[in-house]
Structure formats: structure tokens, C-alpha cells
Write a structure and sequence with these properties.
two-stranded antiparallel sheet; 123 residues; mainly alpha; elongated; disordered C terminus
Length: 123
């Protein structure tokens, strides 16, 4: 999907317009318009190409006007029919972590220094 988004955006940052072919030190990122933590799905209509500089400069990371810069249809603030896809992604994540915890003798205890990401790396 990342490749499809980069191609759709002509391998350029939708904010500043720079491209790696013109700037050898440029790194392109694929950014969620509606952040995943806010229920934004990982779909082509919710992803956009940004250079590393513009991506790091987003504060906060949710900026609805980027959708307009990328000429993508639809409002940035609504999930609509994508809410079901998001719930399915969350469910898959929960099932994965459950599986990992079951193989690692359960989740870490309250005083443990082992984190969930440590369990995931081990699996």
C-alpha cells in the first residue's frame, strides 16, 4: 500500500512538493491523515506522502488541511464506513497480542521491567 500511495502522489511531498530525484537527502514518509490512534484506517484514502521534514513538523500530527493539499476526496474528520475496517484492525491486533502473551506465560506483572514490545520482539 505504501508503494501505491507514493506512486499516486508522484513520489513527492504533498506539502512542500520536493522529490527524492531532485534532493538526494530527502526521505519520503507515508502519513495517516487521520492518525491511527484516532481511529484512522490504513487505507489509501487516509494515507498521504510527506517528506521527513514536513512529517516531523506536523504538530499536532492531525491536520485536516493536508487532505486538500493532496487533492484527496472527502472530509478528513469522519471515518464513516471505514470505522468497521478500523475495528477489524484493532481486533486483529488484540488477537495477536493475546497469542504472544499466551506463548510468553501471560502479560508482564505490574512491577516487571519487561514491556509488551519486548514480548512482541521475542515472538
Amino acid at each position: 500500500m505504501r508503494g501505491q500511495v507514493l506512486k499516486r502522489d508522484d513520489y513527492r511531498c504533498v506539502i512542500c512538493g520536493r522529490r527524492p530525484r531532485d534532493h538526494v537527502d530527502l526521505e519520503l514518509h507515508v502519513h495517516h491523515l487521520i492518525p491511527w490512534r484516532m481511529g484512522g484506517p490504513t487505507t489509501e484514502t487516509n494515507l498521504v506522502t510527506l517528506c521527513g521534514t514536513c512529517h516531523k513538523g506536523l504538530n499536532p500530527d492531525y491536520e485536516p488541511r493536508i487532505r486538500e493539499l493532496a487533492n484527496l476526496p472527502g472530509p478528513a474528520a469522519r471515518l464513516g464506513s471505514r470505522a468497521a475496517e478500523h475495528r477489524a484492525e484493532v481486533q486483529r491486533y488484540r488477537e495477536l497480542t493475546e497469542h504472544i502473551f499466551s506463548e510468553c506465560d501471560g502479560p508482564p506483572s505490574a512491577g516487571s521491567s519487561v514491556t509488551t514490545s519486548d514480548h512482541i520482539r521475542e515472538a
